[in-house]
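Hi R.,

Here are the chain sequences for the assembly we discussed:
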Amino acid sequence: MLHLILFSVFGLVCVGGAVNLLLQRHPINSALSLVVVMGALAVEFLLLGAEFVAAIQVIVYAGAVMVLFVFVIMLLNAGEEERTSGSRVAWLLGIPAVLAGMVIVCWALLARSNAGVAAIGALPGHPADIAQLLFHQFLLPFEVTSVLVLIAIMGAVVLAARPESVERTKREG
Amino acid sequence: MPDNDFVRSYLPLLIHFLLAGALAGALVLLSWLIGYRKPTRAKMSPYECGMTPIGDARARFSVKFYMVAMLFILFDVEAVFLYPWAIILKDLKRMGQGLFGLSEMFVYIGIVLVGYWYIWKKGALDWGLTISSPQAARITRVTRSGGSSQEPEPELVGVAGKGGL
Amino acid sequence: MNITTFIIVSVIKTALVLFVLLTAVAYTVWLERKVVGHMQNRWGPTRVGPFGLLQPAADGIKFLFKEDLTPPHVYKPLYIAAPMLAVIFAVTSIAVIPFGNWFSVGNFRTPFQITDVNIGLLVVLGITSLGVYGVALSGWSSNSKYSLLGGLRASAQMVSYEIALGLSLVGVLILAGTFSLRGIVEAQAGHFWGFIPNWFIFRGGQFVAFFIYLTAAYAETNRIPFDLPEAETELVAGYHTEYSAMKFAMFFMAEYANMITVACLASLLFLGGWSGPLFGPSWLQQLLPLLWFFLRVFGFLFVYIWVRGTLPRFRYDQLMAFGWKFLLPLAIANLVVTALVVVLKP
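And here is the predicted structure of the full complex:
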């Protein structure tokens, strides 16, 4: 019972944060709403028994990725969004489309799931279980991740260095 | 309920979080209620050592800060992969797969270290004047040669032209 | 125990721990002023109560009665939220930290800990990584040059040292094989060669990791020699320049609460937690571990203050270079060597 209440409450927090993200006009408020969504998602993972994933969700998404977002907003000195009068077609088509999409996703999930109930702990959620899976069954994806990190590191350097190299070519050429 | 133990191990954490929030809120509220308020124009202006503030605080900042945040994410992801590996390394050894466990992580660390070597060589980890922005090099040039130099010193152009940040 | 009793017990435990933590925060400030005073040939606080012991209470009351300014140039919602976030994240991670063994009166049995979770260490790391928001948002929302510079510096420094800090713990995790903080302490029980305790700093050879952890933690908590965010000679007070009254004090509470968390974690991970000689009647045997644990924490806090009284401040480029070019490779080398030793040792 308690479990169900907590799960629903944090589900609502999650959805509320996501809606707030869209409604807020200042980018920093939107970014912070996204932090709330990440945190609430972590609690949902936790309530599903995925302890390790929950912790990683907080450490990587709320604690690292969103810090970058906030940094960028601080650095770019991004102000409030300008409100444009959205086209009526977008409203008329968009909202029904979103609703339809949600119905399809829900239907697909409900139809395909075996409707079985799994107790917490029945599925791998404990850190050691995750580790065993990661370093045996999913070894190749894990190693490929390192290449991905390498590429991302290089990309970060190239991105951050670009304006200067442009300036240099202008100066030299 | 079978999952009761699990919920119970985390419920106190939630309670603690809520109590901490209540505490923080109470402190702010108390201070707002009790503290007196007598604003003056000088008190309400941004602190700038007694001078009248010049310009807006929202200036643009060095791309370095952005760079640090990006590199932080990447190395954080690396660290996150190391944690689960660390807690099962002894189990792997017990199962006779110790060397396998070592090698899979050493390949991973090795590849990430290549990236680390790259950012080091690119100067992404350097702060200060050696960051070789053209402007910084120009400033150094002027100060070093007493402000009279017309032709750039080759050594400093070398720094500026190395293509770092 | 049914769920209502459980919740009541949890609330009581949490309130108790928060009370002890805040008192400890107040008296760490007193200790710092006293110790630094004596190191600089001064007396420190002496007027309020014997040895100035009531000084923290006087300070607290003063902060409440001070003028609570909200300047018009700030971004108000975040300006008010930032100190609250700083305090909340600083005092939450104490929830998974064990202070001692079990406590039992009759049938009632509970650990000296709010809750023991499987991922205790990760919870602490996660909450610490959120602490950066309080600093970054206070700097940004204040809309003042010093605040913004301080906030930026602080957040860049905190994220940089978080990596070295995280990697320095991998060696301990390899040796302990669990994320549970209680489990990590239990893995350090016993002695080797007859008298040296099995603490990871000795037996696992984690003294390099210990050094990295302490250094990175000093930077995480923005303490001297890494207190550039509030370098008063350049930035006035850094990210909390525009704050007054209790909101200003809350940043200090957060800083000292973080120091205490760091001290607790260092004791648990490297110095065997609450292990120590047990003797006397059974009630004393239950309470002695608490004493041994608090002694360690006190030792770490004293070192914090000692370092503050001794070392000068880094320059910003030195600080970044030290974190990225020295501590990070050292932490990776430490974990590689630890893994090699653990696997290859017969």
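The mean pLDDT of chain C is 85. Chain C touches chain A at residues 3, 75, 77-78, 117-119, 122-123, 125-127, 129-130, 132-133, 136-137, 139-140, 148, 151-152, 155, 159, 179 (CB under 8 Å).

Let me know if anything looks off.

Best,
T.
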